Amino acid sequence: MDSFVKFTSLSQGRDRIFRTTQYACMLLNYLIHKNGSNEELVSKLKQLESNMSAGRKLFRLGNTVDAVQTARRNVQLSDPVLRFCLTVIPLSRALYFICDNILWMGAVGLSDIDKEKWNKRCNRYYYFSLIISLSRDVYEVVQLLKEEAQAKKGQQCKSINDLENNPVQRDFVWTLRVKTEALFMLLFQNLKSNPPVLLDIVKNLCDLALPLDKLGICKTNPGVVGLCGLVSSILSILTLTHPVLKLRP
């Protein structure tokens, strides 16, 4: 109970709860509507989904400043690739939050805006931040593979010599298949032993489905969007409640 109270006292915790509820409603709404049953429940789920979305926009009013501060801190990182990625990501998120705040002002009647135009801008910045986030994940995976390769350098040299000395194993296709299988096995083992990297990749891939659908790059349906958003939200809650699972820096 104490953990739950502490979690809900955080603005990020409340946002994650609202986000999980929003996409759970979207998924349930799609499944119920697809079966053509209980139109009243569908209407209630749509209303709840809309309320959760509006509540999240309200919670995000101060996130632009936080994102800029995060970018300023990350400029100090020594690794040039991480410095670039972890500076660009919060800056693009800051632009996303600005567009989101403008959409909120339009929704509550504080300003007259072109909602479609600002919604597209919002999703473009979100899409860009996710692409950079996935690039950072790829970099992390490459670094893990390099470390593993350095640790197993002697063993790899012995395996290569065995291949060269065995005339049966000199076949190019066979050698390529063995090396490919070894690479995938190495990748699997590294991701399995590094949950933060694996969770971040899965979360970013799930999140990527949302702007892809909104921008019309890869149209799906509300069921897929709801499922991806729900999985991403649950993983976000997991990393927030268990900081050891969060990818750092």
Report on this structure:
By secondary structure, this protein is mainly alpha-helical. It contains 10 helices and no strands. α6 packs across α8 (172-192) and α6 packs antiparallel against α9.
**For this entry, what is the oligomeric state of its chains?**
single chain
Q: Describe the main β-sheet briefly.
A: none
Shape: globular
Uncertain spans: none
In percent, how helical is the residue content?
over 70%
Give the total of beta strands.
0
Structural class from helices and strands? mainly alpha
The number of distinct helices, counting runs of at least 4 residues, comes to 10
What Rg do the Cα atoms give? 23 Å
Mean pLDDT: 86
The first-to-last residue Cα distance is 29 Å
Element order: H for helix, E for strand: HHHHHHHHHH
- Which strand-content bin applies to the residues? under 5%
Quick synopsis:
The protein has 249 residues and is an all-alpha fold. The protein contains 10 helices and no strands.
Features:
249 residues, mainly alpha, 82% helix, globular
Topology (elements, then pairings):
Blueprint: H1 2-9, H2 11-35, H3 39-59, H4 63-74, H5 80-107, H6 115-151, H7 153-165, H8 172-192, H9 195-214, H10 222-241
Helix pairs in contact: 2-3, 2-10, 4-5, 5-6, 6-8, 6-9, 9-10
